[in-house]
Amino acid sequence: MKERQDYESLQNPDLVLVAFDLETTGLSPQLDKIVEIGAVKFVDGREVAKFGVLVYPEMSMPPGAAAVNGITDAMLEGKPTIREVLPEFLSFIQGSVLIAHNATFDLGFVRSSMGRLGLGQLSNDFVDTRVMAQKAFPGRPNYKLQSLAQDLGVKALDAHRAQDDARVCLELFLACLKQLNPGGQTSFF
User: Fold this and answer.
1) Residues 130, 160, 161, 167: which is the catalytic one?
2) At what angle do helices 129-136 and 162-180 cross, to 10 degrees?
3) pTM higher than 0.70 for the full model?
4) Phi-psi region of 167 (alpha: psi -120 to 50; beta: other; left: phi over 0)
5) C-alpha distances in angstroms, 34 versus 59, 99, 141?
6) 102-159 pLDDT, tens per residue?
7) Which of 18, 75, 105, 128 is the most buried (most CB within 10 A)?
8) What class has domain 15-180?
9) Residue 101 designated active-site
10) Angstrom distances, CA of residue 65 to CA of 60, 76, 170
11) Which residues, listed in sequence order, are joined to residue 36 by a DSSP beta bridge?
12) Average of per-residue pLDDT values in the chain
């Protein structure tokens, strides 16, 4: 697993890319749990599949986390656990390059959950759109996903929910790619 910063190589039309986002009960991959996974798979700049699921964390949803993502205990009741969901997600992302905003956060939760469940190591390469945006759009006051989206005209339909944040991340990735390679040939645009 390595961070990809050779952005031109990501324009290969045969490459499978998956933009994803997680919602969690808190900030610590060791103590907190995943409550939602959202992902968009695309090839040659076109969406080919989506993955979205709420996950029962086997604990109460902390009020602070619920205030950010709007996910409540009632929404999570009866949903599958990470033990049921994570193998499906790992199958969905198999062989792809992952794209996430502030990737170390989301990847930390995936890796921690894999470790707890004895599911081995994550081997996917990844792109962090926060790092990519810092190169594409230097000197901004912040690089939060929603701020970048607003400034680039990407409409967030359901901010801080995993499926929509994954879509916004995908659109940010494409905007950064275009900015970093303005005259280049790419089938994405």
Assistant:
1) 160
2) 30
3) yes
4) alpha
5) 11, 18, 29
6) 999 999 999 999 999 999 999 999 999 999 999 999 999 999 999 999 999 998 888 8
7) 18
8) alpha beta
9) no
10) 11, 13, 24
11) 23, 54
12) 94
